[in-house]
Amino acid sequence: MKYINVAIDNKSEHTDTLYTYGCEDDQVQVGQKVYVPFGLGDKVREAYVFQVLEEPEQEYKKLKFAEKIDEEVSLTEEIIDTCMWMKRRYLCKYIDAVKCFTPAGSRSKRGKERNPYKDAEGEAQNILSLTAEQERVLAPIRQAISEGRHRRFLLHGVTGSGKTEVYMRAVAKCLEEGRQAVMLVPEISLTKQIIERFIGRFGSDSIAVLHSRLSLGERYDEWSRIRSGQVKIVIGARSAVFAPLSQIGLVVLDEEHETTYKSDMTPKYDAVEVALKRLQHHDGVLLLGSATPGVATYFRSCQGIYERLELTSRYNQVALPQVSVVDMRDEMKAGNRSIISRQLYEAMETALEKKQQIILFLNRRGYSTFISCRECGKVLKCPDCGISLTYHKDKNRAVCHYCGYEEKPPEICPDCGSRYIRYFGTGTEKVEETVRGFFEKASVERLDLDTTKRKGSIERILNSFKKGKIDILIGTQLVAKGLDFKNVGLVGIISADVTLNIPDFRSPERTFQMITQAAGRAGRGDETGTVIIQSYTPENYAVQLAAEQDYKGFYETEIQLRQYMGYPPYSDLIQLVFASKTEEKAKGAAENWYEKILSALGGEEKECVFRPQAAPMSKIKEQYRYCMLIKCPQGKRRAYSEILETLKEAEKIKKKDYTVNVDINPYSFI
DNA sequence: AGCACGCCGACT
DNA sequence: GTCGGCGTGCTC
Fold this sequence. Notes:
By secondary structure, the chain is of the alpha/beta class. It contains 18 helices and 27 strands. A hairpin with a 2-residue loop joins strand 25 and strand 26. The protein is globular, with a radius of gyration of 27 Å. The two termini are 51 Å apart. The structure holds a DNA duplex. Belongs to the helicase family. PriA subfamily.
């Protein structure tokens, strides 16, 4: 006879505690799935064992007994421990954390294993010998793996420097040591090449692929293949970090800077943090790779939290493209009001004559509108937060989405007095129309989320581009992600300003990454490519240093700014979103929390908590939303989490008419 | 969140 | 007398 503390699979926040049951089976273990009677009606519910006790912690008037143990879905102690950590870190429910680790589907009826990637041919491998640089970088990784010590590496390698080969060698070393490896990629649908290379090298029997397009049954099969121990390598998007492996020796995160590693659904976890947590248990190695590491990541590598390794030369010595920045203010002065500058137009003509392909980058349609002067490039920014102000048409005000500062938008530019004040954010969709008008004979195709909603059309468009059937491809970030095109002579970035002025402290970082990635698409064949960046603020450091391909210079500038403004990595930003049926209730809840947080802080660090404000799109699905931002100083994360946890706990007791959603270091601020 | 219990009004 | 309305409070 044992006593077990279980987390019950129930939607409610009110039942998000561990319940004690008796258990007849002495063999019961932490992590096992059990069925328990719950509530007045003793309805049978699924639950997971978090603790096994010899004696109950207290006397229970009516102790109930667990019914049976499900042997097929049981987790390990390590996983349960990670769930406890996730609950605290992301303020989610026990069961939300557990569900990350369990397969949503059920066992396939026929018991026959489906193979979701059997059509993926393993790419024939002629194993190339490593360059001296690759050898140098691999040595410490191999050593860490063979010593079985928890270490963390950041591999900073320019595009085309052979990072994937380094990953594969590290994975091979890990398998040699009898352990398993996880390979995370930002977006599985665009990374077919990586999967094929891995299957070619390691064979498909020992590889499992996890991604969102798998059916529930397929996912379940992959999950049980992994748990049974026959899988040695798991490749997948961020959720693959939850793979039920028992001896993780290595987790690789390719394109570490990508925002897709942060979940936007509950629990709002960060795959890097989860990987670190798990690897500490397993004494495994973390390997982050990127050509443009996130500023926070690079900062940590300077602090020694990550050991930095560098690959500086491109694999087959292809020269980096020639990058130039076009000042759109000059175009304006010269009377060219089109979205395409004269220089870009000429470069396009030249490329078409030479039968080279062209990619034009169009940043995600700005959902927020920033205000700028077309004559001098001045952009309206918050005096306190340094981020771009967003124009709110309904009240005709320019508003800061971080702190709520607002002002009346100027009619003439405060810097140069020009009346050409422009409200940016829309209009970029017109690029396709303009380009078709300019180059009637060329074949033009657009690739973005609108055109690729239909399944398979991404691949269709990319394939016809590869075959040379498209002359000009107009696309969003989608095109930039690690795709290899041979005949691209010219890459044009229509407006670097759109990314630069997203109201987010990371917008310079994103701009730098976007330009660098885009530039990497040009001239990967034998000829040097050309990159043209259009901007109204060409003197901006992110644009300038990206054009010069100077990562370190950018980092030095950016990290100083972050320190000065107190942004990550010098703080953690916590976003709270309050939703309710009426505006008053949402506002009331937000203001109530604001006061309570301030008093919990004991009057200190008042400047860290911003006043709540109505969310820009304040009404979604019949719910009114208010949001509030907290800038949690470095080293105070635990204290702030505890305040929020206590508040959440206290609110749980009373009947609430609102919901709170917590996001730690969100990737977008609403 | 569910779900049972309970304490009032309209009904065979 | 009883069927059922939803308000209230608890779940090991």
